[in-house]
Amino acid sequence: MIVRFYKYISNLLSPLIIFYFVLRFFFSKEDKGSLLKKFGLSKVKRPNGKLVWINGVSIGEAKSGISVAEEILKNNSNTTILFTTSTLTAFKVISGLKKNFIITYTPIDINFIVKRFIKSWKPDLTIFMESEIWPNIISEHKNNNISFSILNGRISKKSYFFWKKISFLSKEIFTNINLCFAQNKESKNYFESLGVSNVKLISNLKFINNSRKIDENEYVSLKKILSKKLVVTLFSSHEEEELILIDCYKNLKKKFSNLFFIIIPRHIHKSNQIMSNLKNHSIDFALRSKDKNNINEKNFYIVDTYGELNLFFKL
After folding, report:
1. pLDDT of residue 93
2. In whole angstroms, what is the distance from residue 315 CA to residue 293 CA?
3. Number of alpha carbons in the 13 Å side-chain half-sphere of residue 141
4. Which residues of the chain, if any, have pLDDT below 70?
5. Which domains does the chain have, with CATH numbers?
6. Where are the alpha helices (DSSP H) in 97-241?
7. What is the DSSP code (8-state) at residue 207?
8. Exposed, middle or buried, 10 (CB in 10 Å: 0-12/13-18/19+)?
9. Separation between Cα atoms, residue 124 and residue 176, nearest integer Å
């Protein structure tokens, strides 16, 4: 009943939601192609045979999803992979990999758009990576008897309590998830508490993803440069978390003259804000995209490039 009301409201508010995405277009956060595809308007037709829909909202989730897609094709070569993502950056990176997938954007969770998407593609199985919970999408899978699974599932404490507060809605959503592979015990417990009946615990796919090979020459070169430095790396940093590192640096630089911080922002476009914060504190830094390995006299290193996370994990 509540999900039905949500569907009605999403359709009712669709002009405002669509207007919001059009505004994103004018701020260069969407392009014409992403808008049309998010509205469920695609010229690509569904091929015959089995089709698996895999969704990874941004680059990290998408790259884990690519590994899953490759394994599916290895064992089921006649299956079509429909791969969706939500950001321009992730779409560009995935398209550049030249995989044998159909690549498009995740539909906006408005009921009539989701219905059109499901009707057009008719997936035999859907796999969402990590933490994307969209009521209309999950409900339409239930209505069409399509299995909906979450792989590498993750849910934060904050999200858990949010869904618990609106249990009148979340019960109808989470009970319709057929299978969830959670990446840690906390998430497993949260998914079970929210109503998912079949939850398994697995390792985090981001750390066992074999598809992200590293450049060994680059690794050796960087390791040599950093060999005499005391390195602290902030992976997948969120907004202004680098301010904590700046405070650490100021407090410790007299005691540790070789202290060196590496910042890998979750969203590359945040690099400008990080640079601004470092400049405001008169701290020397290098950019991965420009300075590469010219970092000997620097204190901070901003990794503003894609696909190098495994390189820095190995370091």
Report:
1. 84
2. 14
3. 27
4. 206-213, 293
5. 2-207 (3.40.50.11720), 216-314 (3.40.50.2000)
6. 111-121, 135-143, 157-165, 167-174, 185-194, 216-226
7. G
8. buried
9. 16
By CB atoms closer than 10 A (0-12, 13-18, 19+), residue 32 is: exposed
pTM of the model: 0.75
Q: Give the span between the Cα atoms of 84 and 91, in whole angstroms.
A: 8
The confidence score (pLDDT) of residue 291 equals: 75
CA atoms of 262 and 222, how far apart (whole Å) = 12
138 vs 123: CA distance, rounded Å? 13
Neighbours of 164 (CB within 10 A): 12
For residue 136, give every residue at least 6 positions away whose Cβ sits within 8 Å of its Cβ, in sequence order, or none: 6, 7, 10, 109, 110, 111, 114
**For the CA atoms of 184, 189, 192, 194, what is the dihedral angle to 10 degrees?**
-110
As a whole number of angstroms, the distance between CA 37 and CA 43 comes to 9
